[in-house]
Write a structure and sequence with these properties.
Elements (H helix, E strand, L loop, with lengths): L2 H18 L1 H13 L7 H17 L3 E5 L14 E5 L5 E10 L2 E5 L6 H6 L4 E3 L1 H8 L12 E7 L4 E7 L1 H7 L2 E5 L10 E5 L5 E6 L11 E5 L7 E3 L5 E2 L4 H10 L4 H20 L4
Parallel strand pairs: 3-6
Antiparallel strand pairs: 1-2, 2-3, 4-11, 5-8, 6-7, 7-12, 7-13, 8-9, 9-10, 10-11
Length: 281
């Protein structure tokens, strides 16, 4: 099984677990997004730790390793966690994205090659044959190798979702790629947007030049505009609430010793053991 196939198998297994024990994922996502009370960026980093541990504790046929920021410069792929299927021994990288409901970055395109390749085609590529010819270029190989697990939150309505983008369907159904110039809306840089035969938005490749930062380049989509190209692992939106006790636990842990941490960890492990026996508690 290839990398993409192994990831799809994992997503299917995660979706099954969530459908059987929805309270587990609601608890974990609620805890993750509670971290926004500490800082607007905090939840993203802690999501990586939390999802890795969720896999290790509750997905018995899988093991996960948090890669960590210290290895960032050595990464050959966009990778936050590594997942190993304990049955098949398949190992694959996963990039965690914790974004609000709207624009979603799927890849930073570190080699800055996608946008220049599309520029060679001019302002538009039309027709499935022409589109497939362009997307068959090696610079778009990343389309087939990106394993992104997006944790999406709608903070105003306190609801969340796990939405996985269907790259294969996106590639097969792209009928037109159109260049959108700067000045359209609030755009500072040009983009190439992908559309299906009905004119429906799928995704886009943003500008990749030296003047663009990481949030202005790469492969992006939109969780609302491109919704038909997402599969919801959680079966749709789920409501969450902030866990204020967790924030208090963090604040106390930061000013206590490892003796106190050891005692608290023992209690937390007991709680996890009870959750495994009765996930709906």
């Amino acid at each position: 099984m290839d990398n993409a196939g192994a990831y799809r198998d994992f997503v299917g297994r995660l979706k099954l677990l969530v459908s059987k024990n929805p309270s587990l994922i609601t608890m974990v996502l609620g805890n993750i997004f509670t971290m926004r009370l500490i800082g607007n960026k905090t939840h993203g980093d802690l999501a990586e730790v939390a999802i890795a541990e969720f896999i290790n504790q509750y997905m018995y046929d899988f093991r996960s390793i948090h890669v960590g920021k210290d290895l960032y410069r050595a990464k050959s792929k966009e990778e936050d966690i590594t997942i190993i299927n304990e049955i098949t021994q398949a190992e694959f990288p996963v990039s965690l994205k914790a974004y609000g409901d709207g624009p979603l970055q799927l890849s930073t395109d570190k080699s800055f090659s996608m946008f220049p390749r599309l520029e060679r085609e001019g302002s538009e590529v039309r027709g499935q044959a022409a589109v497939q010819r362009v997307l068959g270029d090696p610079v778009f190989a990343e389309f087939h190798n990106i394993n992104v697990l997006p944790l999406i939150y709608d903070e105003r309505n306190q609801r969340c979702n796990i939405l996985v983008f269907d790259y294969q369907r996106a590639i097969l159904e792209t009928e037109r790629i159109t260049r959108i110039e700067p000045g359209t809306g609030n755009r500072k840089h040009p983009v190439y947007q992908f559309y299906n035969a009905d004119g429906g938005y799928i995704c886009e490749v943003r500008y990749g030049g030296a003047a663009a930062n990481a949030l202005q380049r790469g492969l992006w989509t939109h969780t609302r505009n491109g919704l038909p190209y997402f599969d919801s692992v959680t079966g749709g939106w789920i409501d969450y609430s902030h866990n204020h006790i967790l924030v208090e636990l963090f604040s106390h842990a930061l000013v206590s010793s490892d003796t106190g941490h050891t005692s608290a960890l023992e209690k937390i492990r007991e709680d996890i053991a009870l959750l495994k026996q009765n996930p709906g508690m």
